Amino acid sequence: MTLLVISPDYASHLLPLATLATAWRDAGERVVVATGPATAPIVRDFGLEHHELALGRGNNARIVRTEEQEAEESASLQGFFDATRRGMIPTLRYQAHERLTDLMWQPVETGRRVLDLVALLEPDEIIVDHLAFSARVALQAAGIAYGDVVLGHPTALPVAGEVYGYAPFWPSEFSPEAEELAELRALCEQVSASFTAQWNSAALAINPEALPTQDAFAEHGARVLYNYPAALADGDGRQLPPHEFLGSTRRTEPADEEVDAWIATGEPYAYVSFGSFLSVRDDVLARVSAALSKIGMRTAIATGSTPTSALGALPDAWLVREYLPQVRLLGEASFAVTHGGNNSVTEAIGQGVPLVVLPFSTDQFAGAAAISRTGLGESLDPNAATVDELAASFARVRDLPDTARSLLSTIAAEQRETPGPQIAYATLRSAHSETS
Q: In what order do the strands lie in the sheet with 335-338?
């Protein structure tokens, strides 16, 4: 049997999708990953076949740097980074304006390449990153079933009453004005209408008999797989489509003698990472570092695109690198500090690690609110939190109450018993059997 995986050319997207695919690989089945050239080495490291397929104008193998992108993408990224410094509403507004170019890239040409690949491989099962709209529009127009993997908070797939790009909830640390929110929602509704028109136009070009949709952002595959812990979504009042929660997709990382020796000292530590994109926020990372020093917490910090020199004087006992084996370090961490990206949140919670979330964009705000609501950590405004406020939050999360620790232990035990790749494999194999 053959599994086809379709992913944007970003490591943060490919890593969880490739990890899901290991369930098929380990069962002796063929796995082909269609993605761009930047992440091809990651595909090969997983022991999977690579087929080149561009789904957008940007890419990154581990860390995003504007100077390594094409001019148009570089300008877009710089605009985004600048917006994050102005706060939640400016960032969401900027992302809304950019949506027609960063999510629906050359949909007809890309969609036809996807269908050509499907015809060539004749896969038995397909899983697609939910944000790969240019691929999904073609599959849906052609009536081809696929597993829709939502990487991020479940609000990345809007339900009735919601509009894509408008956070249905956010942490109390953010207090936007009612007028700002109304203007943002109106903008997101306009963008959604334009995006839907673009989706319908592409679908008709691919299949003249394709039925139009009323909201392209709300479209999804027959099987929705949320790469997210169910415990964080419970109680938020949203009515989800038929789905499965995968919990997390924790990959196996190569051995690293220096990291293993650093962990083996047994001294408690915090883990810090702002992911592929937001590591550019050197000002926030510097405040986080100062706060961790203030409470005397040994720390492993992945600096990403921020030079270590921008963080000031750091203790000798810290582990500081541009890129670190995140899953390995989270496995023993006392707590973690994150921007609220999907990999950081799921890989931490899935290993029983509480979080301090400093959200910058998109569904990170909803994810931060979920962490606060469930008591599995805290959230702060990255642009406003002082060193003292950060230090106080870190100390509280380090000493999280037993009730929260118990919930974290339960989540981790459930995910050890039934890992995300196993859930995805069973779900799609069941669907395949039903249609065979």
A: 319-321, 298-302, 269-273, 335-338, 355-357, 377-379
Rg of the chain taking only CA atoms, in angstroms: 21
Q: Does 3.90.180.10 match the CATH number of domain 257-417?
A: no
Mean of pLDDT values over 39-67: 86
pLDDT at 435: 65
Q: Report the b/e string of 12-32 with b at 16+ CB within 10 A.
A: bbbbbbbbbbbbbbeeebebb
CA distances for 394 relative to 47, 308, 397, angstroms: 39, 21, 5
- How does strand 125-129 pair with strand 147-151? parallel
State the Cα–Cα distance between residues 110 and 52, nearest whole angstrom.
12
Q: Are 136 and 206 in contact (CB under 8 A)?
A: no
d(CA 327, CA 350) in angstroms, rounded, equals: 10
> Rounded to whole angstroms, what are the CA distances from 403 to 407, 408, 410?
6, 9, 11
Q: CATH 3.40.50.2000 region(s) of the chain?
A: 2-248+418-435, 257-417
> 2-248+418-435 has which fold?
Rossmann fold (3.40.50)
Q: What was the pLDDT predicted at 397?
A: 98
Buried-exposed string 145-173: b where 16+ CB fall within 10 A, e elsewhere: bbbbbbbbbbbbbbeeebbbbbbbbbbeb
Looking at the chain, how many residues does it have?
A: 436
Amino acid, single-letter form, for residue 2: T
Which tens digit of pLDDT belongs to each residue from 116-141? Answer: 999 999 999 999 999 999 999 999 99
